[in-house]
Design brief:
By secondary structure, the protein is of the alpha+beta class. Helix content is 52%, strand content 8%. The protein has a four-stranded mixed β-sheet with strand order 2-1-3-4, with helices on one face. Strand 1, helix 1 and strand 2 form a beta-alpha-beta unit. The N and C termini lie far apart (36 Å).
Amino acid sequence: MAGKVVLHYFNGRGKMESIRWLLTVAEVEFDEVYLTTREQYEKLLSDGALMFQQVPLVEIDGMKLIQSKAILNYIAEKYNLHGKDLKDRAMINMYSEGVMDLMEMIMILPFSTDKNAQLEVIKTKAKGRYLPVFEKALSGPIYLVGGKLSCADVQLLECTLMLEEKFPDILAEFRNVKSFQGRMTRIPAISRFLQPGSKRKPQPDEVYVKTILEVFQTKLSMVGR
């Protein structure tokens, strides 16, 4: 019998946070091993656990999975959060990848040398490119694809909350997205995840940034993702 799912990453959001969200919605318990030193990272490398020398790393069902999209797709498939057929999955993947593009802009913000300029880019693209798509998609249905909860819905909720942390009124002109957010936060597993003391991570701070730079032995100006 497979043991509990184990996540290997930093003690912060980054690319692991969407994985935490999806496991939470699937009601899968997981443990976390936080990377805090270069030696831990080198041990994972020497053990052959990191195929492309990157984290996140997730131990699940006897496998060591890397690459965030592959991990998310595996979890979504396993826990019936990836649509009913191939066409549903194609739509879900398109929505998910759009959301991830936007979230990655927010993820790199702590490493940006010009945070104000980066914030302006995020706001402009969110309002002009991404949110209008979801506003239209949610004009009738309660979920993005097939009338059923999927990983795309979970990622969109995560993204809207991240946006509101930076721009509190950003959803004011996107009523369908705001209503969707309200419905999603009433799902019991999500409601619990949003409470203090859960495994949801706070916004990145200086300690998170410093740890990543030290583990990867890189400089702030070299961080691109």
